Structure formats: C-alpha cells, structure tokens
Amino acid sequence: MPYQRVLLKLSGEALGDPQTGHGLDTDAVKRVAAQVAHVASLGVQVALVCGGGNILRGAQFSELGTNRASADYMGMLGTVINGVALSEAIEAAGAPTRLMTALEIREVAEPFVRRRALRHLERGRVVILGGGTGNPFFTTDTAAALRASELSCEVLLKATKVDGVYTADPKLDPSAERLPRLTYMQVLERGLKVMDGTAITLCMERGLRILVFDLFREGNIERAIRGENLGTLIQA
Ligand SMILES: Nc1ncnc2c1ncn2[C@@H]1O[C@H](COP(=O)(O)OP(=O)(O)OP(=O)(O)O)[C@@H](O)[C@H]1O
Ligand SMILES: O=c1ccn([C@@H]2O[C@H](COP(=O)(O)O)[C@@H](O)[C@H]2O)c(=O)[nH]1
C-alpha cells in the first residue's frame, strides 16, 4: 500500500439527496461509509474531513441577510451533523471511529487535540474531524489541508462529485477537459476552482500532494489509496 496515513476529504453534497445534494440521504451515507470502513480494514490510517454543502454554505446563506461570520458558524455546525451521521454509519459498517470537533460540543464529540487524534489513528480508529478549522471565512478544503499537515498525512484525497480537475467547471461548461496532472501553481494561476486557493497554497507549502477523484464510483477510495491512476494528481 503506497500510503499508510491519508486525509480523506468528502464532499458534503455526496451525502445528500442524489438529485439535489441537499440534506442527508441514508443510502448515500451508507454507501460512503462502507467504502471508508473497507479501506480502514486494509490497515490504512484514515483521518476524514467532511464538507457541509448538503446543509449550508456560509457565503451563499449570508447573501440572504445573515451576518457572514454567523452563517459560517452555521456551516461549521452542519459539518458536525455530517460527522455524527458518518461516525454512526462507519461503525455500523465495521470500523471504529472517533468524532473530534474544532468547535467544542463536548456532549457530542471530543474536542480536536492533535496528539489525541494521532493516538486514535495509531489505534486504527477512523478519525472524523468536524467543524472545519473552527474559524469563519474558511472552508473544509482548508480544514483538510490543515489537519493533513498537522497529522502528517501522506496525501490529501479529495473525493468529490467530479472525476478530477477540468479546464473549467464541468458542471457549467460541457466542453471542459479533464487534466490528469497539475502543479499547485497551475491550479492557482489558471484559477481552477475545484479547491479554494488557501487550501492549495497550504498544500504547496507543505509539499502535500492532492488527488481529486469521483466519490460516486464504487471502490474509488480504495483505488486512490492503492495509488491507481485516477482523477487528477496535484503536486509540485
Ligand atoms: N476546474 C474545475 N474542475 C473540476 N471541478 C470544478 C472546477 N471548477 C469548479 N468545480 C466544481 O468544484 C466542485 C468540487 O468541490 P465540492 O463541491 O466537492 O466542494 P466541497 O466544498 O468540497 O464539498 P461540499 O460543498 O459539497 O460540501 C464540483 O462541484 C465542480 O463542479
Ligand atoms: O473552516 C471552516 C470550514 C467551513 N466553514 C463553513 O462551513 C461551510 C461548509 O463547508 P464547505 O467547505 O463549504 O463544504 C462553509 O461554506 C463555511 O460557511 C467555515 O466557516 N470554516
């Protein structure tokens, strides 16, 4: 196995209704959880960050009049809801988990403490990191880059709704072409929006490679961890 410890970033929308991406769809959560539990059973240490796009995105919600920072805290709480759902579903699929949050909600989850998270990983628990970075004006992509750096993960696996990075957003431009390999600088200079610039910059500074791939294709998380050729690899 090329990777011993990975940071898996899941799109929140992938847990939602298959048509709209909203809310939590039990079957979607179960399908994702089964893939995660399977790779954990192979002995790979998995730290997991889940987005919150199925519940609320702060930037969009604030356009309706709510203060942006408050809207972002709502978004972060959404990621905790996803974290609880994933924790239950991954355990039902056979892998032990711990949910740790950047915002303290002690009745629900452990607060994130780096050394405790490392210990959980070493003991084979899937560590689900909720609440993003704990700060407004950031995203869960940046949280994934931050936690991957702190926890010495070897790769950031961005499992999402598209099968890689395209020349333009493929959901908006059907003529967009997939780019199998990119450097961090190319992503930034070409303004490719699959991840936010803060996350890319942090990965570039830490030399942390990123693989962007399609979460909906069954078995793709394992393929990514086995180092198979899929999606888009972003590195120096
Ligand atoms: N150049 C591009 N190549 C690929 N995807 C792109 C590009 N530009 C924009 N996108 C969009 O980026 C999105 C991938 O990010 P994603 O939706 O997973 O965000 P997230 O914040 O990680 O998750 P979520 O918001 O669902 O919780 C896709 O929906 C895709 O349409
Ligand atoms: O560090 C963070 C992470 C997230 N947020 C807020 O949560 C939502 C959902 O996360 P996505 O990355 O968009 O899936 C995000 O839109 C922010 O509003 C945050 O404030 N800080």
TrEMBL record:
Domain Aspartate/glutamate/uridylate kinase: where? Answer: 5-214
Q: Which residues are noted in the entry as ATP-binding? A: 9-12, 53, 57, 160, 166, 169
Pfam family membership, one = AA_kinase
One GO CC annotation, please?
A: cytoplasm
Q: What pathway annotation does it carry?
A: Pyrimidine metabolism; CTP biosynthesis via de novo pathway; UDP from UMP (UMPK route): step 1/1
What EC number is given for this enzyme?
2.7.4.22
**What keywords appear on the UniProt entry?**
ATP-binding, Cytoplasm, Kinase, Nucleotide-binding, Pyrimidine biosynthesis, Transferase
Protein residues bound to UMP: 52, 72, 133-140
Instruction: Please tell me where this protein is predominantly located.
Output: cytoplasm
Q: Which GO terms describe its molecular function?
A: ATP binding; UMP kinase activity
Read off the InterPro entries from this record.
AceGlu_kinase-like_sf, Asp/Glu/Uridylate_kinase, Uridylate_kinase, Uridylate_kinase_bac
What is annotated about its quaternary structure and interactions? Homohexamer.
What family does the entry list? Belongs to the UMP kinase family.
Described function: Catalyzes the reversible phosphorylation of UMP to UDP.
- State what protein this is by name: Uridylate kinase
Which organism is this protein's natural source?
Answer: Engelhardtia mirabilis
Q: Which gene encodes it?
A: pyrH
